[in-house]
Amino acid sequence: MRAYYEQGKERDRLAGPKGSLEFARTKEIIQRRLPAAPAVVADIGGGPGRYSIWLAELGYTVQHRDLMDLHIRQLQAIGHPAIHSASGDARDVDLPDASVDAVLLLGPLYHLPERADRIQTLHEARRISRPVSPIFIAAISRWAPRLDGVLQERLYEHNPEFLSLLTDVEHDGTLPPVVPNGFLGYTHRPTDLADEIAEAGLHLDDLVGVEGLPLSAADMQARAGDTTAWNVLLNAARVIERVPELLGVSPHLIATAATG
């Protein structure tokens, strides 16, 4: 994981058409339940801080934590006074009990192949949250490697071995790197994510698909330059976001949970 993120790719990942769709949809999903500013939001595993910056610009105080020193330096270089960034592990957060009004977990569960670690991360989010605070939990869909990686990105053209990994990934959820220093992570079935949230003592308020059906890179690029086409894409994602049969189609899922 460290080798992948030390390449610095995460800082601009949400800037392209594909990332812009994820970013736009994630923001609107969060804003449905986010308490009004000013409030304190913990962005745990927040990477280089794209969501922390967005929240700070809306008037929130943000406690940003990430394992990667590079991400912390990138965020601290911006110098926003409402963002407090430090090194931190999502399984053992250095924040007091009941000290924040909302928690973002938009990455940690991607990188925890052991269920016990994922449950511990959810327990920590619950611990640092004030009563009834929303906790936003992102997960990679179990079928993202096939639908997003193979059909959309055609990763097999440069990495033929990727195709041979799909059966195992879809069976146990673990996505190994296919190139040196490549991405590795864990993928969720929607029902498994809901079960983990319940086991951590949280109440699941909502579970939605983020992007909808993955499209080709060329199609995404064309739509990004056309306001009407872009809005059609956003609206399609909204319409199908809670359809049970289609939840796993989106590359990302977001669960909104609460402490009680």
From TrEMBL:
SUPFAM superfamilies the UniProt entry points to: S-adenosyl-L-methionine-dependent methyltransferases
InterPro entries linked to this entry: Methyltransf_25, SAM-dependent_MTases_sf
Domain Methyltransferase: 41-131
Pfam families in alphabetical order: Methyltransf_25
CDD domains registered for this protein in UniProt: AdoMet_MTases
The name this protein goes by in its record: Methyltransferase domain-containing protein
